[in-house]
Amino acid sequence: MRLDSLSRAIRLVRRTLFVIIILTMGATSSRAALGQSIVVRLVNGRNGKPIAKVRVYIGFDDLKGKPLDLKTDTNGEIRFDAHGARTFQVHAVGVVACGEQPIGAPYPNFSIDEILKGGMLTENDCGHLNEEPLRGKLQYFVRPATGWQLFKN
Hints:
With 153 residues, the chain is α+β, with helices and mostly antiparallel strands.
């Protein structure tokens, strides 16, 4: 009798472990299917400090659909899920990108796959910083906009 109850206990433990493993695998794969979190960090291109409290609009796949309206935290970061989009655009308010596009040129598209695989840095014509790309993060170099730049935009 004792051997029989021990055998049942071992089977119960095996089943429980199997269920836990299956649930863990399901949770991991469903997170990947829903999309991974992207981080955009606004960095002052002149001194390397993060820029906090900046309103940032994120548009997906050439602005199809409604853009996200976000604000950077104290680390200059915003986080969002791509929800199946392949590219996104950054539209920061009150700052100018250090690798600024010519007037009238479209905003650049950033590849979500590329950012998730190895990270990305934007061009920095404002200074000479030794930043390295970080996986899952876009480091977006900006500088404060002048009064004239705010007026013309």
